[in-house]
């Protein structure tokens, strides 16, 4: 069946199967920044924004995205660069597999709660697992990004 | 130093966070065939028959592969030097299955869906055997897990499969029993460490295609591309000249990718059919069918004299390698070789025991690689001994631990699978690490504990050492090329897996060549294009590959000076070069002019050099880890309030990346110390097979990490560096166990240290009082 999705502000029509998840459909269509890791919404690596809210795409049936706006990190390049700059300054880049989804979630946090406290930042991002950094570097970077008014 | 020892951001972080194509699966051909594996439902069985007729008739199924399709060539999947110190006990596909999740057969089809359908249509009949699910009963069990005749060891590793022994080892210095009998204080305790899962976020992934030269090109998420090429060539009898392995960005490895996973099947299908092919493990497969950390039982006997000097360490270890013997011996030996020298003033040391087969998911390489298991046992035992002697555990360590310019005979005796190499500790700032850590955690204000009403606060600590590559075995090499316009290419076989090695190696080259990191364009790990390197393991990259880069950059600089001297028509000693300008008397020539001239004008040539490095020693990094915890008095839940890591890893090439690498290792170690555990059902099925049932630390579990470095300069390292990749993971288990005892007076001797275990011990303690 065909679904209409606005991906990164561009109208797209995808031919999908009933059982297909959005993650697979996006990867098939070359949105490779969306990556697979846990298969069951536990780790946050496949996060996309559905109408600006972070959602794990590994368990969202593609047909449910019909008529909605999907944002991948390809759609927020300037913000991702800004977030990436703070990550670099804190040494928060390690394997980077979780970083595009992290950037999307951090960006969504800024839209939703730009004055988030330390505890609110941790709670908002608790589903975004990272096995490399130990989280402290990311936390410092995220705090600095939220404080950036430019 | 202008580049080295500066906090350079990683060179690749921005491109990656912006979502550029980077990881293995991003490079798979769009119409790749899919490989899916049918996995064993039995812990131990023989395949009697396979009916795949219905599956083969499905539209879109290309082939079904069973053990009958492969010549019986035993090999090891462990990505180690050659000859491997792991037994050759694995076949691509075998008629035996040895754990729930083992490979039975593979289907190859045009989509995931058709492969899944095919798997459901295949009927396999098994003869089911009694499995061995308790490693303490494995040795000489009537079930023999590897009865096949072809399997063998490459050299003597104590391999005895008929007794279910993958490897065994024994060493003794002095006379342990005699020393113990002379001691005033002795303890005898047994510790258990659990299987831990790597949980690198990128699952094991591989894809392949034939190129226009009819060569097999494999993209693999691996830590050891050169070993992958060799092992595939051997097991599939494909000439190595026909194989190219490319390692794109790796989404975390931690040792889990220091081995062959889907590579063998994917390589076979593509080589056989000429069609592109790929395989990505599901998370369930990553948990059930890749590797875990080796679980161990460590029996420790320590003895001290009346002056509270440690005199003897006796260590009997049993390790569970699961169904196959990957890294069986070497992980085991590291539990001794990178732990026992910490206390080098003893009269006698013994380290002995076996690594046994069981019908569990195989164990393999994992950050810490035995050292974390050994460290938990030894550093827990030291605190127990200190309690008995009523001496402050820090004072005791300061008296007995390794110091600078000292050595231990263990270094010469125990290597990784073979004999070791004698070495002096030219740099060992452990004393400073302990003093600084004690101060930073506020030890004297809390030790042993502080009752806060609802909570008890306490502190605990442990010391650790690791290595920097395997001496006289691990080799790294680097090529550097000067390009027109005056920038460089650095080609290394070293494997960036997220630890930042591309950045750090570029910094080393840039420092030698007196240029900026941006002028050094690095390529890592393509077996056709980059020079050989053993890969990312054994904490070797900065030290071994870094030394190769250092040498290569020095040689290139010398070549450049020679050419400049030729152009100026003078002797090389008359030329000055500051990285930008060559100067001879009053004459100047910019690097840009120089490189353009030798590329395009007179007597043109390409300047490029290759250098290799193999270390005569493996200078250990040292560390003192201090934890501050709050234990709930009713539930015994533990909050880690602070973790102070004071590290001597020589001079850090990139202090920021090194600090964050230690941070990450601490959190991984805390996961193992507090709650991570691979769990099996009674019949051997892995229960903790997804991230809902296997919990790794989240950002809510971590309150404060304080990682600092002491001033240190290791003469044999590039710009004074030692390694830093693994050392951080070693101290959390013992430091936490010690803190719990300081808080509550009970000793947890098996990992993870859970509230349930503490509660049980507290009940026993209160019953004893009654």
TrEMBL record, chain A:
GO MF assignments: 2 iron, 2 sulfur cluster binding; metal ion binding; oxidoreductase activity
Keyword terms of this UniProt record: 2Fe-2S, Iron, Iron-sulfur, Metal-binding, Oxidoreductase
Residue ranges occupied by any 2Fe-2S ferredoxin-type domain in the UniProt entry: 1-76
UniProt keyword Iron present: yes
UniProt superkingdom: Bacteria
Keyword set includes DNA-binding: no
InterPro entries in the record: 2Fe-2S-bd, 2Fe-2S-bd_dom_sf, 2Fe-2S_ferredoxin-like_sf, 2Fe-2S_ferredoxin-type, Beta-grasp_dom_sf, Diverse_Oxidoreductases
Classification via PANTHER family: OXIDOREDUCTASE WITH IRON-SULFUR SUBUNIT
Name under which the protein is recorded: 2Fe-2S iron-sulfur cluster binding domain-containing protein
UniProtKB/TrEMBL annotation, chain B:
The UniProt record lists the keyword Cell inner membrane: no
Domain Aldehyde oxidase/xanthine dehydrogenase a/b hammerhead: 18-130
Keyword Transmembrane attached: no
SUPFAM superfamilies cross-referenced by the UniProt entry: CO dehydrogenase molybdoprotein N-domain-like, Molybdenum cofactor-binding domain
Domain of life assignment: Bacteria
Record-level Gene Ontology MF annotations: iron ion binding; oxidoreductase activity
Keywords: Molybdenum, Oxidoreductase
Protein name: Molybdopterin-dependent oxidoreductase
Source organism of the structure: Hujiaoplasma nucleasis
């Amino acid at each position: 069946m065909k679904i209409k999705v606005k991906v990164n502000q561009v109208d797209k029509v995808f031919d999908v199967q009933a059982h297909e998840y959005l993650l697979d459909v996006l990867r098939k269509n070359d949105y490779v920044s969306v990556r697979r890791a846990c298969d069951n919404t536990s780790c946050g690596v496949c996060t996309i924004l559905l109408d600006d809210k972070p959602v794990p795409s590994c368990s969202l049936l593609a047909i449910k995205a019909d008529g909605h706006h999907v944002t991948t990190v390809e759609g927020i390049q300037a913000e991702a660069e800004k977030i990436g700059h703070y990550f670099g300054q804190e040494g928060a880049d390690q394997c980077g597999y979780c970083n595009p989804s992290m950037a999307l979630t951090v960006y969504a946090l800024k839209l939703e709660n730009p004055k988030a406290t330390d505890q609110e930042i941790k709670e908002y991002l608790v589903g975004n697992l990272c096995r490399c950094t130990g989280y402290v570097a990311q936390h410092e970077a995220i705090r600095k990004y939220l404080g950036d008014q430019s | 130093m202008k580049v080295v020892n500066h906090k350079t951001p990683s060179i690749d972080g921005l491109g990656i966070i912006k979502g550029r194509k980077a990881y293995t699966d991003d490079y798979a051909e769009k119409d790749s065939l899919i490989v899916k594996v049918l996995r064993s439902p039995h812990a131990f069985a023989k395949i009697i028959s396979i009916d795949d007729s219905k599956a083969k008739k499905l539209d879109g199924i290309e082939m079904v592969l069973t053990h009958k399709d492969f010549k019986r060539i035993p090999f090891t999947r462990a990505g180690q030097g050659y000859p491997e110190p792991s037994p050759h006990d694995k076949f691509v596909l075998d008629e035996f299955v040895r754990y729930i999740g083992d490979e039975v057969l593979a289907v190859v089809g045009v989509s995931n869906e058709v492969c899944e359908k095919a798997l459901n249509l295949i009927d396999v009949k098994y003869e089911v055997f009694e499995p061995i699910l308790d490693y303490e009963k494995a040795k000489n069990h009537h079930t023999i897990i590897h009865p096949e005749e072809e399997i063998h060891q490459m050299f003597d590793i104590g391999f005895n499969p008929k007794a279910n022994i993958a490897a065994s080892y024994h060493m003794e210095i002095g006379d342990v029993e005699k020393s113990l009998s002379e001691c005033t204080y002795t303890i005898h305790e047994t510790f258990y460490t659990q299987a831990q899962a790597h949980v690198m976020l990128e699952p094991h992934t591989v894809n392949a295609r034939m190129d226009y030269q009819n060569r097999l090109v494999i993209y693999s998420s691996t830590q050891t591309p050169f070993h992958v090429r060799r092992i595939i060539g051997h097991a599939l009898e494909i000439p190595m000249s026909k194989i190219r392995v490319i390692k794109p960005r790796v989404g975390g490895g931690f040792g889990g990718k220091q081995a062959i996973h889907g590579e063998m099947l994917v390589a076979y299908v593509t080589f056989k059919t000429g069609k592109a092919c790929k395989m990505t493990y599901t998370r369930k497969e990553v948990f059930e069918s890749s590797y875990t950390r080796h679980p161990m039982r460590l029996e420790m006997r320590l003895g001290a004299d009346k002056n509270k000097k440690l005199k003897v360490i006796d260590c009997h270890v049993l390790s569970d390698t699961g169904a196959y013997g990957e890294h069986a011996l070497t992980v085991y030996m590291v539990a001794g070789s990178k732990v026992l020298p910490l206390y080098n003033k003893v009269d006698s040391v013994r380290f002995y025991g076996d690594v046994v087969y069981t019908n569990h998911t195989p164990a393999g390489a994992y950050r810490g690689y035995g050292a974390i298991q050994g460290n938990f046992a030894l550093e827990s035992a030291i605190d127990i001994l200190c309690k008995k002697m009523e001496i402050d555990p820090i004072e005791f360590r300061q008296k007995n631990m390794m110091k600078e310019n000292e050595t231990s005979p263990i270094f010469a005796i125990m290597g990784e699978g073979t004999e070791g190499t004698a070495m002096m500790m030219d740099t060992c700032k452990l004393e400073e690490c302990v003093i600084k850590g004690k101060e930073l955690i506020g030890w004297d204000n809390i030790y042993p504990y502080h009752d806060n009403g609802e909570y008890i606060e306490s502190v605990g600590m442990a010391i650790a050492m690791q290595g920097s590559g395997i001496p006289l075995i691990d080799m790294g090499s680097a090529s550097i090329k000067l390009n027109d316009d005056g920038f460089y290419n650095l080609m290394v076989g070293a494997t960036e897996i997220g630890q930042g090695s591309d950045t750090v190696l570029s910094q080393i080259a840039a420092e030698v060549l007196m240029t900026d990191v941006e002028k050094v364009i690095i390529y890592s790990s393509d077996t056709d294009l980059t020079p050989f390197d053993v890969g990312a393991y054994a904490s070797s990259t900065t030290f071994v590959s870094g030394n190769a880069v250092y040498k290569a950059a020095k040689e290139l600089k010398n070549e450049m000076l020679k050419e400049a001297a030729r152009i100026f028509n003078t002797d090389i000693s008359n030329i000055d070069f500051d990285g930008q300008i060559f100067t001879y008397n009053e004459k100047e020539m910019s690097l840009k002019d120089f490189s353009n001239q030798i590329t395009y004008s007179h007597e043109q040539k390409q300047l490029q050099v290759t250098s290799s490095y193999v270390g005569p020693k493996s200078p250990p990094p040292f560390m003192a880890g201090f934890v501050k915890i709050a234990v709930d008095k009713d539930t015994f839940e533990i909050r880690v309030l602070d973790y102070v890591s004071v590290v001597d890893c020589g001079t850090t090439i990139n202090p920021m990346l090194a600090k964050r690498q230690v941070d990450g290792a601490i959190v991984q170690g805390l996961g193992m110390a507090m709650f991570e555990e691979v769990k099996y059902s009674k019949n051997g099925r892995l229960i903790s097979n997804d991230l809902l049932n296997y919990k790794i630390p989240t950002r809510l579990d971590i309150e404060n990490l304080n990682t600092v470095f002491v001033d240190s300069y290791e003469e044999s390292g590039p710009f004074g560096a030692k390694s830093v990749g693994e050392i951080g993971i070693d101290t959390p288990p013992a430091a936490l166990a010690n803190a719990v005892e300081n808080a509550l007076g009970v000793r947890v001797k098996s990992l993870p240290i859970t509230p349930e275990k503490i509660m049980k011990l507290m009940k026993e303690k209160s019953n004893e009082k009654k």
